[in-house]
Amino acid sequence: MEFYVVIPASGSGIRFGSGVPKQFLKYRGKEILFHTLDRFASCSRVKSVFLSIHPDYLRKKSFLGKLSDYKKPLVVSAGGATRQESVYRSLKKINCRPTDRIIVHDAVRPFLSTELIERLMDASKGEDCVIPGLKLHDTIKRIDKIGYVKETIDRNSLTSVQTPQIFRYDKLMKAFETAFKKKYTGTDEASLMEKAGFKVKVIEGEITNIKITTKKDIKLK
Q1: Residue 44 sits in a domain of what CATH number?
Q2: What is the DSSP letter of 29?
Q3: pTM for this one?
């Protein structure tokens, strides 16, 4: 089986409050998105990378020029109004076998290791979907609408989920098509697989594989 990477990177970054989409902010002299791309471009088992970006960036020669520096085959297209639509647009461009694997990764998770990518690839054999997760160490409580605790939840049955997430191509496409037909949106691609009735396997993630959501996160690394 072969591996294809999909990176949705068309977000506007409004919640980040920088005026620039956070995937294009610079960290150590280079845009966050390119740090993320580097991780997959250096992985020999990845056949090609499919990147969806905001249409405005498709017209930026400086940005497109940097993409041309990658030796790994890289397909760039305009993203949709939502992450779900952006990923689906990339999936439709991939010419692969039904049993090949699709790796979907957040553009703003630049600190993942090659070792994590390799472990996920190995674990994906025979699975519909494999995702990285971390055990919770804090006590988790369910509260009501005005802030009073209703119950304490057993954290042993919970995990916080990361990307990259790996899927069998034909089953991921079916999950997307089911979601569009029934008009629901998932919080991630694995949630679409769950709703479509496919099994999702969790393996150990990495505590350093953070998603940059605030300006403080960039200072953590």
Answers
A1: 3.90.550.10
A2: T
A3: 0.93
